[in-house]
TrEMBL record:
The lineage of its organism: Bacteria, Pseudomonadati, Bacteroidota, Flavobacteriia, Flavobacteriales. Its EC number is 3.1.11.6. It holds the Pfam family Exonuc_VII_S. It comes from Flavobacterium chungbukense. It comes from the Bacteria. Keywords: Coiled coil, Cytoplasm, Exonuclease, Hydrolase, Nuclease. The gene is xseB_1. Belongs to the XseB family. Residues 28-55 form a coiled coil. InterPro entries: Exonuc_VII_S, Exonuc_VII_ssu_sf. This is Exodeoxyribonuclease VII small subunit. It is an enzyme of class 3 (hydrolase).
């Protein structure tokens, strides 16, 4: 994965890999590498979503319970 990947770039790459596999445009020789890369991208996206959810939760909580 690149040094500072974004969710959007990772999701776009994952979508491209998915389309290649669905359309059977990927060779058998590349299949394992593409599936491994897809797995890495899925993990990255899941972690990014969880981190964002936690951060948004903290922000909302601080808005609902401001320190006086």
């Amino acid at each position: 994965m690149e040094e500072n990947p974004t969710y959007e770039k990772a999701f776009a790459e994952l979508s491209a890999i998915s389309k290649e596999i669905e359309n059977e445009t990927i060779s058998v020789d590349e299949l394992a590498a593409k599936v491994k890369r897809a797995s890495e991208l899925i993990e990255f996206c899941q972690n990014r979503l969880k981190a964002t959810e936690a951060e948004v939760g903290k922000i909302i909580s601080s808005m609902e319970n401001p320190k006086e």
